[in-house]
Amino acid sequence: MTTKRSHARFSWVRATADWLLLLALAGVWLPDSATAEVKLPHVFGSHMVLQRNMPVPVWGWANPGETVTVKLDAASQSTTANDRGEWKVVLPAMQAGGPYKLTVTGSSTVECDDVMLGEVWLCSGQSNMEFGVGNGNNAQAEIAAANHPGIRLLMVQNHWTPLPQEDMDGTWKVCTPETIAEGGWQGFSAAGYFFGRELNEKLGVPVGLIEADWGGTRIESWTPPEGFAAIPALKQDYERLQMGDPRTDLHRERLQQTLDEYDKWLQAAHQALADKGLVPTVPTYPTELLAPHDVQNATALYNGMIHPLEPFAMRGAIWYQGEANESEGMLYAERMKALVAGWRERWHEGDFPFYFVQIAPFKYGDDPKTLAELWEAQAVAAEAIPNAGMAVVNDIGNLTDIHPKNKQDVGHRLALLALAKTYGQNDLVYSGPTFKSMSVDGDQLRVTFNHVGSGLTSRDGKPLDWFEIIDADEGGFVKANARIDGDSLVLTAPEVKHPVAMRFAWSGLAEPNLMNKEGLPATAFRAGQTPKRDWVSKHVPEAKDYELVYDIDLSKLGSTIKYEVDNHAKIRRPFDRVAYVVELSDDNWNTKDIYVSMDAFTDDPAKIGVPAFGTGAQFQQNVADLNVYSNVKGIVTGEHLDGGNIEFWPGNYGQQNSAKVPHASSDVFDFGDEPAAPADGYGSMQVHNHNARQTLFAINHWREGKRADIGIGNQPTNNPDWTFAANAGGYHTMRLRVLVHYR
């Protein structure tokens, strides 16, 4: 491209060139508005299935102003192509049947043969939907038996783009042993095929399956902008999309600002050239102005693989995805709401059915509770999204394979949802047991279920497993005995006298055996209120005489310290003692608590909290008259203890025991370390009992958030004061309180 290097033109050309390059790299399909013949998008073709009992949109391209007529059996509609060569008609609803011929006539004629009227379903998601028939159980036998002329298959080729596309690559095919096994990941989607096969058999009508999936992809990539706009929790996602969309005012305003910056740079560069001076740095093109530029970016796969299908008439969609969003917990429920709301908005068919698969048990990372939280989010989405349903597969997974091979049952359970909820077959049990209510009766909990079918049972004949309960006063969640009593379970545990809450299958490794007698499993859930205990008020008598100054949720640590409660500016009276309370709990709600009070080491309340840079806190000294209370085994407790010392500073430190703290080592990080530069560095908030050779508690490296060092007592291995532990993310809850006692 050749152009004058005028200021504004240079900036515009550069930005435009970058944009066109991005479009070219992404393979954006640009329709030819000057086409000389009538064209249909690839979602239409011979051997396709059109949706029965529903108006059928048909669209395509022709010469601007050209009259186009569409005929299907006895139905016929005509229209005129607009000035961009686009046209669309809507054929009336028709009963199931075929084969028919779809004829589109204008300056040329397009014919689609062997067209059936039946049920059309979109099959989408990531790799477990992409998982082909050739990968699964009994693959060769299933392929050999896949001779189903009433099932038609359309596989959308993988393609992401920055902007919505009007067409895609794909061809409708009759389901045969050859076509079911070709393309994709070892053939057509196994979950989609087994779902469609059962609908075809049970309904006796043709079934069209459209596969649009891509392994390893996030749900955001499949979601249209309208979906993000519909969900308040995803407001920031929507705003980012608007900024990156060249069709929005927000994008154009920011782009103009960027072009103005380029113009100023050009002027300065020309002046530098004339003056033989230094040229200033070229402004960086703002990344927020980029449209989707990666397969994982929001809307990228929607643009390339879903938008080209709209508004092809269909009954509904099935979805199998979540592995790529496994760590997002309840946010995933909001993302599912956005996906479905966006698709429904784009299709203009109302609340079409949306059925999905809850992802299977598997070892993701080091925290098995993370997957349980995603399961909970999926269950919430199934309840919150109108006309939706979830197939549970925790009994047919594989803990060592993220792609379980039994897709026959996956398809069957999706089909049960559709047959019961969409096609009105009310005699079907389509769900496993789901939580209904919980009540407390003395030392036991009673949990009642919906969808019990002909009764609750154990899949393997063994005692029901993966149930846990927690006591109101002591301890964490413990394994519970579960006894079936009609539509309920009675839960007990010897060590729990006052149960208040329960949870089921609360681990990504859980393959629980509770199901109904129809063979459908129960999903993970929680019920009741996990107790909020104040260990200090119960076990530390002196605490009632202290006043709270700071309260901080340590899970929110970061470069800026944000207290839940900050009363230091209200402290007007002299105080003679300071107390620290650290409370830590694991995923089972087992708690570690410590209370430490000491004679005041400063009269400034701003310096007794987390010693972040700017507080002025810098203390390495002994503290007198130590009182220690704790439920952590091994901690030396008592009142008026000698040997207390603190290490409070925002900077770095080394192992050298330059302060000659008794019993400290210069070989490890412990209770006798040496402050070091920079002053705003690693950070240490440690209270010790050097006579007992113990760290009482440590909060280090707080700017790292979930990779901060936090512990009570000596770290069992490595550095006793928890330096480099990077373990904060391993706790379920973390809390620090700072209190003072007035003179």
State the oligomer. Answer: single chain
Instruction: Fill in the CATH topology of the largest domain.
Output: Rossmann fold
For the record, the count of structural domains works out to: 4
Mean pLDDT: 94
Helix proportion range = 10-25%
Q: Structural class from helices and strands?
A: alpha+beta
Number of DSSP strand runs: 37
By CATH, the superfamily of the largest domain comes out as SGNH hydrolase
Shape: globular
What is the radius of gyration computed over CA atoms, rounded to a whole number of angstroms? Answer: 33 Å
Span of the ends, CA to CA: 80 Å
The largest pleated sheet is described as: 11 strands, mixed
Could you outline the blueprint of secondary structure elements for this entry?
Blueprint (H helix, E strand, L loop, with lengths): L6 H20 L22 E3 L4 E6 L5 E6 L2 E6 L5 E6 L5 E9 L3 E17 L1 H4 L8 H6 L3 E8 L17 E3 L1 H4 L9 H14 L3 E7 L11 H6 L4 H10 L4 H27 L24 H7 L9 E5 L10 H17 L6 E4 L11 H16 L3 E4 L16 H15 L11 E8 L2 E7 L5 E3 L8 E5 L6 E2 L1 E5 L2 E5 L6 E6 L9 E3 L8 E4 L6 H5 L7 E7 L11 E2 L8 E11 L5 E9 L19 E5 L2 E5 L7 E4 L2 E6 L2 E3 L19 E3 L7 E6 L4 E7 L8 E4 L20 E10 L1
Parallel strand pairs: 1-7, 7-10, 7-11, 8-10, 11-12, 12-13
Antiparallel strand pairs: 2-5, 3-4, 3-6, 6-7, 8-9, 14-15, 15-20, 16-22, 17-18, 17-21, 19-20, 21-23, 24-25, 24-37, 26-27, 26-37, 27-29, 28-31, 29-30, 31-34, 32-33, 34-35, 35-36
Helix pairs in contact: 1-8, 5-12, 10-11
